[in-house]
Amino acid sequence: MSAPSPGSKFNRQGGSNLDRRQHCHLGKLSPTELDALLEATPVGDIWGVGPRIGEQLSASGITNASQLAKLDANTVRLSWSVVLERTVRELQGTACLEFEDEPAPRQQIASTRSFGSPVRELEPLIQAITEFATRAAEKLRRQQSHANKVTVFIRTSPFRKRDAQYSRSMVMPLRRPCADTAAIVTEAIVGLQAIFQPGFNYAKAGVMLMDLQPAAEGQLELGLEDDEPARDRCRLMQAVDVVNDRFGKGTLRIGSAKPRRAAQGAWETKLERRTPAYTTEWQSMPVVRC
């Protein structure tokens, strides 16, 4: 619910309540203060009341939050929606919406990018896919999940009408659910090599991690195949993340990635018009000579 405006009746009566425009704990207010606050809040400023419903409520004589709170919740549900019913119940003191301490883990993780210039060769595409898969794996580890499948795609630009058009993707299943950058990059490159066709001006590529599961819920194997025993590389990946966080992104990287000091690749986004980072980079600070 939005708090009243600075010139509202509630604020004129209690000048010390201006801070309620920013935050307000309704449970800490006295009944008199709460009623005054609700009366001073226009019905259109309440969460769950859009412009159309706000006009309908105003036409019915309901212009503030206090009047809305006095409506029958079941009638509101039949006349408008379940969302507005929950809002009314919240105003009446019944909790209907629970707070989340942190967002739920994502079901898919994607890292995609449009290229700064068209790419025609396989090698720069491998570098791009390596970069995208690395970023996706880092996101995967941050939410403490494992992926079962890797999807890789490439496509030309639909806006370049004179170019031949091509778009293809491939889903690569991982042998074991993991968050290992090397395993994810390997499968992504295999998929890229399978869908790559020469002669096209590729404008975008990306990697998506799918069929995610919590890292703590790994399924055990029977161990019947001794030629490729499972290796736990969690500590190695953790060490890589720590080094990259401390010394800069890309300090440790996969061998198929673009060399760190190489010139900017055609697939990398052009940054000529990027806003300078005055507060975090010495190179971006303006220099004044007088």
Please give a structural write-up.
This protein has 290 residues and is α+β, with helices and mostly antiparallel strands. 33% of the residues lie in helices and 16% in strands. Strands 1, 2, 3, 4 and 5 form a five-stranded antiparallel β-sheet that branches. α5 runs antiparallel to α6 and α7 packs antiparallel against α8. The protein starts with 8 loop residues before the first helix and ends in a 43-residue tail after the last helix. The relative contact order is 0.11. The N terminus is likely disordered.
Number of continuous helical runs: 9
> What is the general shape?
elongated
**What's the CATH C level of the largest domain?**
Alpha Beta
Please count the beta strands (DSSP E, at least 2 residues each): 5
Amino-to-carboxy terminus distance: 52 Å
Helix content: 25-40%
Low-confidence stretches: 1-18
CATH architectural designation of the largest domain:
2-Layer Sandwich
Brief account:
With 290 residues, the protein is an alpha+beta fold.
List the helices and strands and how they pair.
Elements: H1 9-13, H2 31-39, H3 51-59, H4 65-69, H5 73-79, H6 82-91, E1 109-119, H7 122-142, E2 145-156, E3 167-178, H8 181-195, E4 202-210, E5 213-214, H9 234-247
Antiparallel strand pairs: 1-4, 2-3, 2-4, 2-5
Helix pairs in contact: 5-6, 7-8
Highlighted features:
alpha+beta, five-stranded antiparallel beta sheet, Dna Ligase, domain 1, 9 helices, elongated, DNA polymerase, domain 1, 33% helix, disordered N terminus, 290 residues
